[in-house]
Amino acid sequence: MNAIILSALWGVVMMIGGVFFKKSTTPKYWAIAGILIILAANILEFLGYPFFNVDTKGMLRFDSFGLVFNSIAFICTLLLFLLNGKDFEKIGQHVSEYFCLMFFVLCGVSILSSFNTLLLLFLGIEILSIPLYILTGSDKRNLKGNEASLKYFLMGAFSTGLMLMGIALIYGGNSLGSFYIDAINLGEGNLSVMLAAGLVLLMVSMAFKVSAAPFHFWGPDAYDGAPSVVTSFMMTVAKVAAFIAFFRLFSTSFGKIQEQWQTLIVIITAATLLIGNVTAVFQISVKRMLAYSSISHAGFMMFALFALNDIAKEGLLLYAAAYSLATIGIFAVVISLSDYSIEGFNGLGKKQPLLAFAAVIFLLSLTGIPLTAGFTAKFYVLMAAVKNGHHLWLVIFAVICAAISAIYYFKVIQAMYFKEPVAGINENIRISSSYGWLLLLTAALIVLLGIMPGLVVDWLYF
């Protein structure tokens, strides 16, 4: 509850502050202060010190799974603000309002990590999504961004309609006539037509939200068209929060009848892995390549839904941390360049050794190379699938897709160290020492989590 209330309140503070802040740099420091306060409050709640005693009538359930994810989300957002907070000034004049919308998204994230009823699931999804529609098109000078915002809004509205219909069918079909996911908890046996239709609609709508294939087509355009700093947030904190909600809903309400819907998850997972990886290979723009690779990572996170066991829960949290840190890090490198194409990375190892070194760590983690958090996270989710014991071919297919991902990630590494710079491209790259140290800190965290995954996983059993 600490995170939900404080993130909403700080969003209001940032909104009102837009009237009083005179310097464009001031909102960044207020936002950093706000995220530190929210992170501290969330940790205190985890340790048993909630600030607010609100009777939610059981509609919210604050457990270690949700609170640990909140901490991961807030830490990643803090890193994003520290690395690229100044880039909000390049979007437009309403810097404080952009940060305000980010805090409202974090309020939705906090609800999605702790909802216990379908009504709160719907509210959490909408509180998370609506500010993102605005942020996607926040750069009014960018026609591609305006188009991406409209497409994202239309697809989001459509998927929300599917979700509402699914919720209505689940509500009408369960014997208790309840919205509580604990009460829905369907036992073994064949589903009625109403419940089966509601389950499929909920699955499809959530697949839309996490940009899983074949419901992914809005993702690359929205990610590519949005301002890069917004894309970094959308592809990490917002995306993984939707996965946490997906896992929470299906493990609690539909876990006992997993065999009846697992095949659908298998199809979605295989399609997501294939489409995301194969399409990313042919991209010229690094930003668009990362957009398609985000879809492939959604395929790996889908393994948590496929397995629904304790290792899957651990793996999903670890993947949330590994994927978010690496993606925020590589986007910080991309944003520092003037050319987002692969050619723009040519010779970066000579021009900016520190920038190139950090980029290598981030790309290796996204590929899943040992000693990085990305490898350990992939190992956890695939091990969860093996423990589940069904469709083992899917694990082999995922390993092949991980190998395919090395093709496009290593293209960037090759460009940085084995190609000569292109004249006139990225000639005047300048990064501050503090920026360099933050990149190295992010890279160090990725290696540390790769060697010691217990730094995240063990908190589940605190």
Total individual domains? 1
Portion of residues in beta strands equals under 5%
Q: Could you give the count of β-strands?
A: 0
**Spans of at least 5 consecutive residues with low confidence:** none
Largest sheet: none
Which descriptors would you attach to this protein?
462 residues; single chain; 0% strand; mainly alpha
Describe this structure in words.
This protein is mainly alpha-helical and 462 residues long. It has one domain (1-460). It has helices at residues 2-20, 26-46, 64-84, 95-112, 118-136, 143-173, 181-184, 193-209, 219-225, 228-253, 258-281, 286-307, 310-335, 348-351, 353-367, 373-388, 392-418, 433-451, 454-457. α2 (26-46) runs parallel beside α4 (95-112), α12 packs antiparallel against α13 and α13 (310-335) runs antiparallel to α15. The radius of gyration is 21 Å and the shape is globular. It starts with a helix and ends in a 5-residue tail after the last helix.
Short description:
With 462 residues, this protein is mostly helical.
Task: Compile the SSE list and pairings.
Elements: H1 2-20, H2 26-46, H3 64-84, H4 95-112, H5 118-136, H6 143-173, H7 181-184, H8 193-209, H9 219-225, H10 228-253, H11 258-281, H12 286-307, H13 310-335, H14 348-351, H15 353-367, H16 373-388, H17 392-418, H18 433-451, H19 454-457
